[in-house]
Amino acid sequence: QVQLVESGGDLVQAGGSLRLSCAASTTISSFAMSGWYRQAPGQQRELVASITSGDSTNYADSVKGRFTISRDNAKNTVYLQMNSLKPEDTAVYYCNALQRVRFNWATYWGQGTQVTVSS
User: Fold this and answer.
1) Which residues contact 56 (CB under 8 A, 6 or more apart)?
2) Is the pLDDT assigned to residue 77 strictly greater than 90?
């Protein structure tokens, strides 16, 4: 079973920066796609950013120009660099991965890491 472990969440002031890390228990080059989602209290989980095995990236409109997703295959880690943070970025951030397993697709989730942005 693939495990994803997030870290890097913290309390930060508006305008500050954080870098989230997602360490995988397997080689991330086997993931068709890796992504970061977030869920604020009372809200649905939403996609923040994703990166494919071909390094194509996609961002939610609300974070474009402020967040950057990247990955380090050697460390089996996916990152989310978050700059110019706003109070509305406050949420639990989850790492996600999509992997082809034989003729099916498997999706994995981390346990989440809390990001709190104070005004």
Assistant:
1) none
2) yes
